[in-house]
Design brief:
binds zinc ion; mainly alpha; 2 domains; elongated
């Protein structure tokens, strides 16, 4: 009887540990989700702002970048990836991304 109780206690403790691990993971997922939503909103605002402020014409500027590339360049400068691989995610510590640079500056 005593051994059974001890076993049961052990099982309960294991279950409790698993439960709180799951809880921690769930919290992280929620936090990540909230972060992504904020980032997404930030990107939308920025895009809207860029579309509003960039001149409609001419299509190319002194630097020879088209308007859409200027938008990508601005996004990149704001610290976001514009490459297909990581589009919309934040560049960690503003690291350079060869994929992004390729997208913005490759020959038209
Ligand atoms: Zn990138």
């Amino acid at each position: 009887m005593y051994d059974q109780l001890k076993d049961l206690k052990g099982q309960l403790e294991t279950t409790l540990t698993q439960f709180s691990d799951l809880q921690t993971e769930l919290t992280q997922v929620f936090e990540q989700n909230a972060e992504l939503e904020i980032e997404n909103q930030h990107l939308r605002d920025l895009l809207r702002e860029l579309q509003r402020t960039l001149p409609e014409a001419p299509e190319t500027t002194q630097q020879g970048l088209s308007k859409s590339r200027q938008v990508l360049e601005k996004l990149y400068e704001e610290g976001f990836h514009v490459c297909r691989e990581f589009y919309g995610t934040r560049r960690k510590q503003d690291e350079e991304c060869a994929f992004c640079l390729e997208v913005i500056y490759r020959d038209q």
